[in-house]
Amino acid sequence: MSARPLRVGVVGLGWAGQQHLDAYAAIPGVEVVALAGQEADLLDELGRRHEVPATFARWEDLVEVPGLDAVSIAVPTYLHAPIAVAALERGVHVLSEKPVARTGDEAQVMVDAARRAARVLDVVFNHRRRGDVMALADLISRGALGTPYYARATWLRRNGIPRLGSWFVNEEMSGGGPLVDIGVHVLDWSLHLLGEPRVLSATASAYSELGPRGRGGSSRDTLTHETSAYEVEDFASAFLRLEGGGTLLLETGWATYRDPVDVMDFTVYGTEGGAEWRAVGATEVPVADVRVFTERGGHPADYTLTAQPGRAHRAVVEEFVEVVRGDPAGWPAFDGSSALTRARVIDACYRSAREQKEVVL
């Protein structure tokens, strides 16, 4: 495959889809040969800008393009599974935006399709490519903190409901609110940093206090032509018990009465030290310093790591292309299993919140 251009299609014209288009355009030997989306003017504009030879309103037409090697999926969550399965059944590799699907069962269908087809199914967890996350991951993997036993992670907004009235707040289309939307990022970078421990149980709470009253968004983000009622949570927290005795506490919210500046952070306590990073300004701040707390000779020996910014979607797309171009014997290791694991944990959190009890995975 590496001897000829890699032929790629992109489904979705929003911010995420445009990130994929830009990333593919920067990789030598990759050609975006098909683009699909329902916004006709934007479809035409992006098609011309990226010199895409075939544009479609329907994703069903895109996956039928002859000679397609891979497809990126950047559309509402309820479409992830049908598009991915259709592509995989045609022998096309898939890179999907997060969350992988609305539920773990849907994610399982996608993973099964990837395994049957012996093709790659990858999911965009771009925040694990943050420079601060990568710096801390290296520190933990080298044993500098000893054995981690407790971690806390958050992504909180004040007025951050994506769009009131849109598919984001429609439970059938999205699968949930901030827990499945941005919370899955928090879960992903946390488990990644902790070395992928198995989650044994979840105790969670979910609240829908602001969105149903039309609060937590902005006039710019409220779409008058979309009329879905607010059906999902606007804040959630989860207490996760991990294999080996560790604990992970998550908080995620689209809308809460807090400081107006969004924040992402992660704190970990280990047997030989602790560490934290805190990005005030969230996605507008590409990297934060990593503060490390340890001791030497019984005295504090704290220090700060200054990390370089990560490359987000660019890194994800480049890694996906590298795997697809690589030895087919390595493809089965990229079957979406990691994203499926996250989906099962999110399912358990929602069930715990509904039933108000601990849920064992």
Structure description:
InterPro entries: Gfo/Idh/MocA-like_OxRdtase_N, Gfo/Idh/MocA_oxidrdct_glycsds, GFO_IDH_MocA-like_dom, NAD(P)-bd_dom_sf. One of its GO terms (molecular function) is nucleotide binding. Keywords: Oxidoreductase. With 361 residues, the protein is an alpha/beta fold. It has 2 domains: 6-126 and 313-334, NAD(P)-binding Rossmann-like Domain (Rossmann fold, 3-Layer(aba) Sandwich), CATH 3.40.50.720; 131-309, Dihydrodipicolinate Reductase, domain 2. It contains 11 helices and 17 strands. Strands 16-13-12-11-7-10-9-8-17 form a 9-stranded mixed sheet. The protein has a 6-stranded parallel sheet with strand order 3-2-1-4-5-6, with helices on both faces. The model is unreliable at 219-224 (pLDDT under 50).
Descriptive terms for the model:
globular; oxidoreductase activity; Putative dehydrogenase; Rossmann fold; nucleotide binding; 6-stranded parallel beta sheet; Gfo/Idh/MocA-like_OxRdtase_N; Gfo/Idh/MocA_oxidrdct_glycsds; 361 residues; 25% strand; alpha/beta; Dihydrodipicolinate Reductase, domain 2; 9-stranded mixed beta sheet
Number of strands: 17
Number of domains: 2
Write the CATH homologous superfamily of the largest domain: Dihydrodipicolinate Reductase, domain 2
Strand content: 15-25%
Domain GFO/IDH/MocA-like oxidoreductase: 134-275
GO molecular function: nucleotide binding; oxidoreductase activity
Organism: Kineococcus xinjiangensis
Keywords: Oxidoreductase
